[in-house]
Each structure stands twice: as structure tokens, then as C-alpha cells.
Recover the amino acids of this structure.
């Protein structure tokens, strides 16, 4: 199995190099003068619909999906536990089904609480 | 039941030897992706044009089929503008990071019985893991451009991808419950009937999740022209911008290939060779995607998130447990009589659930 991931790793390098060569083509063409490059302050300014940008963009930013991120972590962990169960469902049988149902039901309580508290709305 | 005479499995190292196998498949996957991207771009532009009652590109070559080629050459000779305030290295790296995961997705998709670059035994988990890397490229682009629109787009990209991963992953579990295997080759091999018939709801949820994750319209909130200019690629030009474009369509191809593999029977089909069947199904899925783009207006961000958390996620969970119960009752394969029951149940759930939920106050507070 490790050999399989070796192949994946080699293909990853291949894909990355392939993707990286494409901007390099334009870069090379600019270097040898086939593509003109005439920078000027207006052209290289930050685009903001014709207005001058005030300040930087690298600022502290209120991203408004704190609750989503928390709930995502919650459900992603559930999913990780569900995958092995799904693969072995025929061998594990009814008892595992009941166990998983209880497991998900406990998390659903938290989900319903979040819904009730209006945490699922984009604020 | 053998489907046709193409059904014989290929050996795992098909043309002979580890390195030949790797080389042939790597070149094949890259070539196929680029070709399909061109075909997709052509189909989408012509198709959407037909929806809008205009001819679309029809000047380059017969019926305009050379248009993507002409665009590619044009974009190669464009000036590469990097804003003065941008972070140069990240700005350069972002499109590359956004593009290459699309190729990695296709590494595990079987094009024929047993013919994939690698038939990983955790194939579908690998696909989920790899497909979310491209978000990193989008975030890098948004951050490095030093542009406020790009930054907003990047933040939206995270919220979108993080959230829509959940229903996708849950609907995949429905398929895994049916097959009992995570390898994509096994999943295709066990579909004597395409799983869309046993998983109609799972298919719909996966398709919507896919469209959101590929940021296709109606869910293309991170490049919503009416709100944030061009989103994360506002400051991009030349080949780097084209690479983002390429990444979007390559992802659409990768995603369509995965959805055909999981739900539509992958390479299986009568008469035609398996590769042709896979590509036909891919084009069909993509046609649904651009149909949705032409028909539906873009959703608002609060509707979008509400739709996911209140609509798709509970439905995906119900679908999963419904399927699990079916499999426990019939462990040796589901009877065909379940197909109409599944469709009725899916339709009933959608109707009932859409009556149950409502999307908050519908107000986005702007401060």
C-alpha cells in the first residue's frame, strides 16, 4: 500500500511542476521580449472600481462564521467515525447500527440547540 | 453480469512495469484533463448562449470549436500585471496551488476495469482530502492580492468549502454503505445497477455540494460580479488568470468524473468502450451544471449557508440512515423493487423538508 502512495507522491510532483510551468511560459516570453511589459503606477495600483484604495487589506477581519467552523469540526469528527462503520456495516450488523444511531442522536441534540439559538444564521 | 466484451479487467501495471504505468497514466490524465477542459468551455459557452438566445462563439473554425484554443494562445501573450502592493511569491504560487489538485483527483478514477493511475484502497477518502486543497489556492490568491474584494472572496471561499464538504461526505457514505469498500474501482465493479437508483437523494445532495465546492453558479459567491468585482482573481491577468479558469473547469471535470464513478456506474455501459462511457457521463453531469447556471439566479450568502445547515445536512443524515437500514434488511444486495420506493421517499423528503425550513430573517447586517 505504501508503494501506491509513492505513485501518488510522484504524480503530485508531476502535476505541480506541470501547473507551475504555465505561468513560467508567460514569464519566459516576457523575458525574451515577445510579450510587452510596461508597468506604470496606475496600472499596478490595487483595483477598487476607480477609487483609490485606503489603507492596507491585511487587517484584522471579522469573518462571521465562527459558529459554522465549530459545527463543522463537530460533524467532521462524526463523519470520520461513520466511515469505518459504513465499510463494515454488513459484518457489524444491527447492534452497531443502534450504537451509531445513539452516537449521532447525541450530536443532533447539540445541532438542534445551535439551530434554536439561531447560530445557523449568517449574521 | 458482464456488461460487454470490454469488461475484462486490465492488470494493475497495465502497459507493463511500474514506471511505464506511471508515465503513461500521468501523461494521459494531464492530456485528457486539458482536452476535456477545452470541450467543456466550448460546450458551456455555446450551451449558455443557446439558453440566452444568442449564437455564442462561432467564428473560429467550424461552429467555433477552435475558440478555446484561440483564447489559450491569446492569454499566453498577455501582459502579466502584478500589483505593487501584492505579495509576489504567494501571488505567483496561488493559481498553481489552485490547479494541481484537480489533476490529483483523477489519479484514482478508474477509466477501465482496474485501469487507474493508482487504485488506492481508500480512494474516496483521498479524493475528499485532495479536492479541498484548491481552496488553499483561492485563499492564497485573495490574501496575496492585497485587495479588499479579493480578501472577502477568500473568506467566503473558506466558509463555502468548509460547509459544503459535510453533505458531500455524508452522501458518499450512503454509497459506501452499499458497497462496503472505499476503493473507486470496487465501487464501480459492484454497481450492477447504477447507484443513482438506490441513492436518488444522495445523488442530488452530492451534485449540489459539488457545484458549491467547484464554485459554479448559482453558488459562485466568491466571484460574484455584482458584489465583489471578480472575487479572488480580481488582480490576476495573463496566464495566471487563465490558470484559475483552467482550475475551475478541471475541477468540474474531476468532480463530474467522481460523481459518474460513484452514482452513474463509472466506466460501465453497453457496446461502447469504457473510457467513452465515462466521458459521456461526465459531459452529462457537466451539462446539468451549466443548465443550472443558465437557469438559476445566484443565491445570497445567508440563504446559501442556511440552505446547507438547515436543508442539506439533515437530509444527508436521514438518507444515510435510510440506506443503512435498507442494507441491514437485505445484506446480499438490494432488490430492484426498492428503486421506486427510493424515488418516492426522496421526493417526499424534499417536499416535506422544504416546507419545514425557512432562511432566517433574510437580512445581512452591514456595519
Amino acid at each position: 500500500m505504501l508503494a501506491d502512495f509513492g505513485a501518488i507522491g510522484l504524480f503530485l510532483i508531476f502535476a505541480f511542476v506541470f501547473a507551475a510551468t504555465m505561468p513560467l511560459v508567460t514569464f519566459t516570453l516576457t523575458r525574451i521580449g515577445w510579450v510587452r511589459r510596461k508597468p506604470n503606477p496606475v496600472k499596478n495600483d490595487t483595483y477598487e472600481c476607480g477609487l483609490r484604495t485606503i489603507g492596507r487589506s491585511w487587517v484584522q477581519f471579522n469573518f462571521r462564521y465562527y459558529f459554522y467552523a465549530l459545527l463543522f469540526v463537530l460533524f467532521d469528527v462524526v463523519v470520520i467515525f461513520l466511515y469505518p462503520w459504513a465499510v463494515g456495516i454488513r459484518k457489524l450488523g444491527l447492534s452497531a447500527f443502534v450504537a451509531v444511531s445513539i452516537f449521532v442522536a447525541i450530536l443532533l441534540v447539540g445541532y438542534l440547540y445551535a439551530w434554536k439559538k439561531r447560530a445557523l444564521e449568517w449574521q | 453480469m458482464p456488461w460487454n466484451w470490454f469488461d475484462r479487467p486490465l492488470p494493475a501495471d497495465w502497459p507493463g512495469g511500474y514506471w511505464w504505468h506511471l508515465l503513461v497514466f500521468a501523461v494521459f490524465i494531464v492530456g485528457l484533463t486539458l482536452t476535456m477542459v477545452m470541450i467543456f468551455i466550448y460546450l458551456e459557452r455555446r450551451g449558455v448562449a443557446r439558453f440566452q438566445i444568442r449564437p455564442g462563439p462561432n467564428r473560429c473554425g467550424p461552429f467555433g470549436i477552435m475558440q478555446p484554443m484561440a483564447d489559450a494562445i491569446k492569454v499566453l501573450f498577455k501582459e502579466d500585471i502584478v500589483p505593487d502592493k501584492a505579495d509576489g511569491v504567494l501571488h505567483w504560487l496561488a493559481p498553481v496551488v489552485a490547479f494541481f489538485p484537480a489533476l490529483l483527483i483523477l489519479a484514482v478514477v478508474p477509466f477501465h476495469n482496474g485501469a487507474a493511475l493508482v487504485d488506492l484502497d481508500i480512494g474516496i477518502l483521498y479524493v475528499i482530502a485532495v479536492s479541498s486543497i484548491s481552496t488553499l489556492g483561492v485563499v492564497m490568491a485573495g490574501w496575496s492580492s492585497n485587495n479588499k474584494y479579493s480578501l472577502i472572496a477568500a473568506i467566503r471561499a473558506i466558509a463555502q468549502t468548509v460547509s459544503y464538504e459535510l453533505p458531500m461526505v455524508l452522501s458518499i457514505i450512503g454509497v459506501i454503505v452499499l458497497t462496503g469498500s472505499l476503493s473507486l474501482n470496487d465501487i464501480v465493479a459492484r454497481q450492477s445497477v447504477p447507484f443513482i437508483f438506490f441513492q436518488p437523494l444522495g445523488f442530488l445532495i452530492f451534485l449540489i455540494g459539488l457545484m458549491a465546492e467547484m464554485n459554479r453558479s448559482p453558488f459562485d459567491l466568491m466571484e460574484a460580479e455584482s458584489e465583489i468585482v471578480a472575487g479572488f482573481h480580481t488582480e490576476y491577468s495573463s496566464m495566471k488568470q487563465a490558470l484559475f479558469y483552467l482550475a475551475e473547469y478541471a475541477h468540474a471535470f474531476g468532480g463530474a468524473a467522481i460523481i459518474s464513478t460513484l452514482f452513474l456506474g463509472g466506466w460501465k455501459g453497453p457496446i461502447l468502450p469504457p473510457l467513452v462511457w465515462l466521458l459521456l457521463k461526465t459531459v452529462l453531469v457537466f451539462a446539468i451544471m451549466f443548465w443550472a447556471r443558465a437557469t438559476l439566479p445566484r443565491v445570497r450568502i445567508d440563504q446559501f449557508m442556511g440552505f446547507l445547515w438547515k436543508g442539506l445536512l439533515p437530509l444527508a443524515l436521514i438518507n444515510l440512515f435510510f440506506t443503512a437500514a435498507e442494507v441491514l434488511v437485505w445484506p446480499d444486495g438490494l432488490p430492484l423493487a426498492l428503486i421506486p420506493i427510493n424515488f418516492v421517499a426522496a421526493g417526499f423528503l424534499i417536499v416535506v423538508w422544504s416546507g419545514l425550513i425557512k432562511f432566517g430573517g433574510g437580512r445581512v447586517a452591514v456595519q
Q: What stands out?
A: Helices of chain A lie at 2-31, 66-87, 89-116.
